[in-house]
């Protein structure tokens, strides 16, 4: 009996740690140039996962507003902007949320997962078409 309880506790702890893998600071890497662009803080709020830009490496872009964003994000400063919104855990992925590209204001459906190499796979979708970036964890 004690052995069964210990196994259940280990499994529950293991799943909760795995779900937390996504949380933290990630360096965004441009999928076309390989250039590091910013740092995004991924955090949990009200049971959903969000990600906000907390650092921009290009000094000329740090104070720019999101003029191409729509809705409530229009003209908000890009630094501090929640670009990842309302993600929920669905199996091994985080899904059912969106990501916005502040450079063009386009919003994409999003799927996130931490790879075996410890990188965050960020896959944005429009219909059947998608683009993938791999972000690096900041310790």
Automatic annotation (TrEMBL):
Domain DUF2147: 24-137
One Pfam family per UniProt: DUF2147
Highest taxon, organism lineage: Bacteria
Protein name: DUF2147 domain-containing protein
